[in-house]
Design a protein that fits this description.
heterodimer, A: mainly beta, Beta-Lactamase, Immunoglobulin-like, 3 domains, five-stranded antiparallel beta sheet, 8 helices, 26 strands, globular, B: mainly alpha, Leucine-rich Repeat Variant, 46 helices, ARM-like (chain B), TBP_dom_sf (chain B)
Chain lengths: 451, 927
């Protein structure tokens, strides 16, 4: 049972505060914020999401810069409390369209209304946007989404790709369109976060895909939906040796190590034809989370060369190659590389003719940052950086620099080749055919090359 | 101000400065970023401002609030169209003031007047307002009773539910009489929302006035609802309310205690139980009995309904199921089959709750238990990677617990615990711990299966990558992890090489952290001294600044003085800078090192020694001065004695700071899926008793041993703290304290503390075995009240033998009194002893030990547990007086170890009783 729930802004202001049990002192938000802010004197370590202070357990999650906090006296399940906080954030986002300090402040009455129904006397009642709909009467005051930082995985679609109705993901589940009638549409997003570690010789040490099929439905009447996945989809790695190495050739079965499903999903025919059927509740939710360690072809190869030029100078040559088809374009690429602590100045030699390219040396962190707006599949880009050291450098630069890490987003591409073959909506009325958006995206989670 | 307020209330306008928020006084002064800029430029930080709000509020509150009051009053009676909208705006204003801490209780009556409306949004706001102020203004609360009671009979079920919830949440004790009627109706309401609210409402009423709640017989109604209701959430709420009510009731009500007594006094029931955790309290028993048929059927029925429950309710039911003890293995499999698909739930809380059920149910079935570990692996790993970092943290903590219990499960999956560069530090730290745990095991595993090296060293290689990381805390943690692996493994060759390579990296933090580890390594593996010293000798002491690292370096300089050419000179230069050395720890080490060095290489060190002693004697730090004086006198007295004391033959330390006792680990495991796992402490160490929670109440006997024993808790807590500390620090500090405590005599082993402690425990063992022989003769005479041990030739007994102690053969105590006494008394004797394996064998029959002890007038009052851990509670009473002895005895049948905790009315005889108890126990196997 939860004693209190509150949301703090980055500055530590109380945006929302709800006491359910009255067994934790009122000043807990302030105590909490001080503790988190000054967790370690050097400020380098982050406070863990769960800690105990004078007999009060504090749970917190960070969502778009806001701190969602719960307190409890009892020995609660930590995953329960943390999951609850995430869900509360999601429910609020479903209702407000955007989650931000401003939208919370403008809609605090609605937020309190939600909180009253989500938790009663410290016990969780429901976090389902669908169920809550019948209890909620306030209407959201919509906040302009354009200037808001995006939230959630689906927000990646807002940038770049014009084909997607970017505003749709910030639509409240209860607010009506300006036209007065709701647009029938459903979004299915296949989002894969990839983690790859390359050894210094360019060989893949570890690779993993954390995928999720995210759904957001704006369909009226809650029709049943069938989602068909690849025929050659297998779960569990027990039979892996029979399939052999197949990842990079682009064919062969898709093997998930493991997956889990949203509770609305029925898997009756999953074993037969790999279809999932569900009646999607309102709001955004993950239909399925999956994990793949089957080898796949990394979308980028990274090549780093360091040449020492005397004791006070060195040159770093970074080469990245896009290993995906040329019909696909990666967005917002950022390459980072820590440099030796005695680096004072870096001169960059950028390739000409590339739009939106920028390289910078962040002196305070001793870090090289190279950002490129777009990279087309199959192309190769190089950055040359000349380093100047304040003192003579002895020994090995590679021990003081690196590893090179990379972040990027690649729309309409997923390395696992998991697909939604079709999305069937059981029709109840003869209204116009609802819009169906099936979108794929790949994001770098931890993409690191050692040097 | 008036104009402003008026203006913005009638037509809300944006702040003219920032155009972000509505412009009101609070915004203008506190929230507007332009205002903030002004404050900041005046040197007032926003934090200060938030804290100073109360004084700020006084400033403008009166005008603002009274204005609101006026307007509300005007609207109260109005029925004009559009009134509701205006009201909404006003209500919002009131509530927004309320949330930022401004007291708006003065508009209470106006708010209540205005709430006579059918607009549900307005009602909701009003309820929120009322709920906030009623508790502290009971008089005002009385005003609301009328309209809330009326709303409880409204046509709209939403309004009925909301009103009932608000009514129950008023929190005013002398208004409870008004609650009973609406609650009773609520529980019978046709709408499930109202019933849902009512079920929780009963619990609220219980907290306000337990008597009223019990008198109205609400628990019985809840029980009825729980079994009959069609709505899953109503059932779930009944369940939670009942759980909490009964757990609280169990502590106070006579009836509940009586039921519990009957439970405790039925030994056959206790012995039936497979584990301690299922000795249920009344609350849970009631829950079981509440179901129409036998437990079994109901649980299964409940599980079949599982999918109807929402995910959160599932967590509650699963938690309850984990307490349930199935009658046979078929039932266990039935339950597990029913629950298996819960492992694929996207909600981590559901998955962990399910895993808890699986783990606890299969505890006694070793094979199945292993299969469970295999089965839960993949879902847990998926949770780690699919959830938020916070969720990963919670799940990783549980994985860590599992790995400690069954290290083999992840020996092939270590790659999952490689750190990703963008993870928060707390996740990385846990992953490092996982790698440490896994690496350790894979190597021991490899030792058995031949192709060693290749495998176990992979995680180490990975760790070495992190050491080179630019992230300093991360690098430090990684070095510690490498060191931990080295200290755990038999084959440290490769790892020592790695550590020495770290020293060559010439990064200050790496060097510092590594030095500390090398020191620990040398203490455990003196055979590596040669390689290490060669490298350590090359480190310039100027590059080492951190006290801990410096102390480690100095220790090595002293300890291996004969191997290191420069050691006297390095020490000398360090002593020259004595005054600049701020850490007393370093100065202490410096003294010891210089005297060690002197004894080995007198001519070279003489000068340094003189300087060190002089500086030491003049030091302002008490400990440093004492140690300098001690060395000075020692050298004056006899150099050869000094040699023996300061430079004893080197001995390898086998065990460093003691790890958590298995009892604590087991208790944490019992509390799987709770904070205990994250904190790595059992719940009694961090929660107050009354907050142990609805799920903890079943550990009734467990509470006996843990309930409110201040000293026990402190000891255990210290143990945990020690674990957290750096290995070196904890041992070296112990050395120090022990050294002083023993008045210098312990100085013969200043750096090998472990030998003294093992000596100590040896003493215990001796004691027991001695008693065995001595009391064997007295067995016969004991029964006729002979004096124990006194008449016997005591022999070379290390401790004085106990004085006369006669026990009452017919002593009786009722379980409740026992429990109370156990809570009140402090532990007077607490020891770990070993028993004869034959005795353990005899315990295959659970009644054997109680019967055996009965012969010695020690009565068993409760018992439980399952192989290999058994727990017994004994009771004995002095023959002449009513002075009692209480014993908690935990027997591990696989290691033949016994943990005793004795509490006594008469503390002075507790030692005597302890020995009597041990001797009786040791004779279990003897015919």
């Amino acid at each position: 049972m939860i004693s209190q729930f509150f949301v703090l802004s980055q500055r530590g202001d109380n945006i929302v505060f709800r006491d359910y049990r009255g067994d934790v002192q009122k000043g807990s938000a302030e105590i909490f914020f001080r503790k988190v802010k000054f967790w370690k004197e050097d400020g380098k370590e982050e406070a863990p999401p769960v800690f105990n202070l004078d007999g009060v357990n504090y749970f917190h999650v960070k969502v778009v810069g806001l701190l969602f906090v719960a307190t409890a006296r009892i020995n609660l399940s930590p995953s329960l409390a943390l999951e609850l906080l995430q869900r509360i954030a999601r429910v609020i986002k479903d209702y407000l369209g955007v989650l931000s300090e401003e939208s919370l402040r403008k809609n605090f009455v609605l937020v309190y209304e939600l909180l009253d129904e989500v938790i009663d006397f410290g016990y969780i009642q429901t976090t389902s946007t669908e169920v809550l709909k019948s209890y909620i009467f306030n209407e959201p005051i919509v906040v302009d989404a354009a200037c808001m930082p995006p939230i959630g995985p689906a927000a990646l679609f807002m940038q770049g790709n014009k084909r997607m109705p970017g505003t749709a993901v910030t639509k409240s589940v209860v607010a009506n369109e300006p036209g007065g009638r709701k647009r029938e549409e459903i979004f299915v997003d296949i989002i894969e976060k990839i983690s790859v570690t390359f050894s210094s010789s360019g060989y893949v040490l570890t690779s993993e895909i954390d995928g999720t099929i995210q759904m957001k439905s704006y369909l009226t009447g809650n029709p049943e939906i069938r989602l068909a996945l690849n025929d050659d989809l297998y779960i569990g790695r027990s039979g892996i040796s029979n399939f052999g190495y197949s990842g990079s050739s682009g064919t062969g079965p898709v093997i998930l190590d493991d997956c889990n499903f949203h509770e609305s999903v029925h898997m009756d025919s999953f074993d037969v034809d790999r279809t999932l059927s569900l009646v999607p509740p309102d709001g955004e939710f993950p239909v399925m989370n999956y994990r793949i360690t089957q080898e796949f072809k990394p979308p980028f190869s990274i090549n780093t060369l360091i040449e020492e030029a005397g004791t006070l100078k060195a040159e770093v040559i970074l080469k990245i190659r896009a290993e995906f088809p040329s019909s696909i374009t990666a967005n917002t690429i950022l390459v980072e590389m820590p440099l030796p602590a005695c680096t004072t100045r870096v001169n960059f030699d950028l390739e000409r003719g590339i739009v939106g390219q920028n390289a910078d040396f962040k002196e305070s962190h001793k870090k090289l940052e190279w950002s490129v707006k777009k990279i087309v599949g199959g192309s190769e880009h190089t950055l040359r950086a000349k380093l100047n050291f304040s003192q003579e450098f002895h020994g090995n630069i590679t021990k003081e620099a690196g590893p090179v890490s990379m972040t990027f987003t690649i729309p309409m591409y997923n390395p696992s080749r998991l697909q939604v073959k079709y999305l069937q909506i059981a029709k109840k009325t003869k209204t116009s055919n609802p819009y169906r958006w099936v979108r794929y995206v790949t994001q770098a989670n931890s993409y690191v090359a050692r040097i | 101000m008036d104009f402003l307020a008026h203006h913005h209330i009638i037509s809300p306008d944006l702040c003219p400065f920032c155009s972000l928020e509505n412009c009101d006084a609070i915004h203008t002064f506190l929230h507007c970023r332009f205002a903030l800029d002004i404050w900041r430029s005046a040197g007032i930080h926003e934090h200060v401002m938030i804290f100073s709000q109360p004084s700020f509020q006084l400033w403008f509150q009166e005008g603002e609030v009274s204005d609101l009051k006026m307007q509300l009053r005007q609207l109260a009676g109005s029925r004009a169209p559009g009134t509701d909208d205006t009201k909404r705006e006003l209500f919002k204003k009131v509530i927004s003031y309320m949330t930022i801490g401004i007291d708006v209780s003065s508009v209470f009556s106006e708010m209540v007047m205005c709430s006579a409306t059918s607009d549900i949004v307005l009602k909701k706001m009003c309820y929120l307002y009322v709920g906030n102020y009623a508790k502290h203004n009971p008089d005002l609360a009385l005003l609301t009773i009328n309209f809330l009671q009326r709303d409880c009979k409204d046509e709209d079920p939403m309004i009925r539910g909301l009103a009932l919830r608000s009514l129950c949440s008023l929190g005013v004790a002398n208004l409870v009489e008004y609650l009973v009627g609406p609650l009773g109706n609520g529980l019978k309401d046709g709408n499930s929302y109202v019933r849902m609210v009512a079920a929780v409402g009963v619990l609220k009423l219980y907290h306000l006035s337990a008597v009223t709640c019990m008198d109205a017989d609400f628990p019985a109604l809840l029980k009825h609802l729980m079994l009959k209701d069609k709505d899953a959430q109503v059932v779930a709420n009944c369940l939670t309310s009942l759980q909490e009510i009964w757990s609280l009731e169990a502590g106070t009500s006579e009836e509940a205690t009586k039921e519990r007594e009957s439970l405790l006094s039925k030994p056959d029931r206790l012995c039936d139980c497979n584990s301690l955790s299922n000795i249920t309290s009344t609350g849970e028993l009631d829950l079981l009995l509440a179901f129409p048929h036998q437990d079994r059927l109901v649980y299964i029925a409940q599980l079949h309904k599982m999918k109807e429950f929402g995910e959160w309710a599932q967590c509650i039911v699963l938690e309850l199921v984990s307490k349930y003890v199935p009658t046979d293995s078929d039932e266990i499999f039935d339950i597990m089959n029913l629950l298996e698909d819960r492992l694929q739930h996207a909600n981590g809380a559901v998955v962990l709750a399910t895993i808890k059920v699986f783990l606890h149910m299969t505890l006694s079935m070793t094979d199945v238990h292993q299969q469970v570990y295999e089965r839960i692996k993949a879902p847990l790993l998926t949770l780690v990677s699919s959830g938020s970092p916070e969720q990963s943290y919670a799940v990783l903590s549980h994985l860590h617990l599992l790995v400690m219990r069954a290290p083999f499960i992840f020996s092939l999956d270590y790659k999952h615990f490689y750190c990703q560069y963008n993870e928060p530090f707390y996740v990385k730290k846990l992953k490092l711990e996982m790698l440490t745990a896994v690496a350790n095991e894979s190597n021991t595993y490899e030792i058995v299966s031949a192709n060693a090296q290749s495998f176990g060293s992979i995680p180490v290689t990975e760790l070495c990558e992190y050491v080179a990381n630019v992230d300093i805390p991360m690098a430090r943690e990684s070095i510690r992890a490498v060191g931990k692996i080295a200290l755990q493994q038999y084959d440290v060759n490769a790892i020592v090489d790695r550590l020495l390579q770290f020293l060559e990296m010439e990064k200050e933090h790496v060097t510092a952290e590594t030095l500390v580890l090398v020191k620990d390594l040398l203490r455990k593996y003196p055979q590596w001294s040669h390689d290490c010293i060669a490298v350590v000798g090359n480190i310039s002491s100027k590059n080492v600044q951190e006290p801990k690292a410096k102390a480690a370096l100095i220790w090595m300089l002293g300890e291996y003085a004969q191997d290191m050419q420069d050691s006297p000179y390095i020490l000398e230069s360090l002593i020259e800078n004595w005054d600049e050395e701020h850490s007393a720890e370093v100065r202490l080490h410096l003294l010891t090192a210089v005297i060690k060095c002197f004894l080995r290489r007198p001519p070279e060190t003489q000068k340094a020694l003189g300087a060190a002693l002089a500086s030491g004697l003049a030091d302002f730090h008490q400990d440093v001065r004492d140690r300098a004086l001690f060395y000075y006198r020692l050298l004056q007295y006899d150099v050869s004695v000094a040699e023996r004391i300061v430079n004893p033959p080197k001995q390898a330390v086998s065990v460093f700071a003691d790890t958590q006792s298995s009892e604590i680990k087991d208790r944490i495991f019992d509390e799987f899926n709770s904070l205990s796992v994250v904190y790595q402490k059992p719940s009694y160490m961090f929660t107050d008793k009354e907050h142990r929670g609805p799920f903890a109440f079943s550990e009734d006997l467990g509470n006996l041993s843990i309930g409110a024993e201040p000293d026990d808790t402190v000891v255990a807590a210290q143990r945990v703290e020690e674990n957290d500390k750096d290995l070196l620090l904890s041992t070296s500090e112990k050395e120090e304290s022990q050294g002083y405590a023993n008045n210098g005599s312990a100085y013969n082993a200043p750096s090998y503390n472990a030998s003294t402690t093992t000596g100590g425990s040896q003493g215990h063992l001796d004691l027991v075995s001695l008693d065995q022989t001595s009391t064997a003769h007295t067995t016969a005479s004991l029964a006729i009240d002979e004096l124990l041990g006194l008449g016997m030739p005591a022999g070379p007994s290390p401790a004085p033998l106990p004085s006369a102690l006669l026990l009452n053969a017919k002593a009786v105590i009722d379980p409740n009194a026992f429990q109370q006494k156990w809570r009140q008394l402090p532990v007077s004797v607490s020891q770990d002893i070993s028993i004869d394996p034959r005795g353990v064998a005899a315990m295959a029959n659970p009644q054997a030990l109680p019967q055996h002890m009965q012969a010695y007038s020690i009565h068993c009052i409760a018992s439980g547990g399952q192989a290999p851990n058994f727990k017994f509670f004994f009771f004995a009473q002095k023959a002449e007086e009513s002075s009692a002895y209480l014993v908690e005895c935990v027997i591990n049948s696989s290691s033949c170890k016994v943990q005793l905790k004795i509490k006594a009315d008469d503390q002075s005889t507790s030692q005597a009783f302890a020995e009597l108890f041990q001797s009786s126990l040791s004779k279990l196997s003897l015919p």
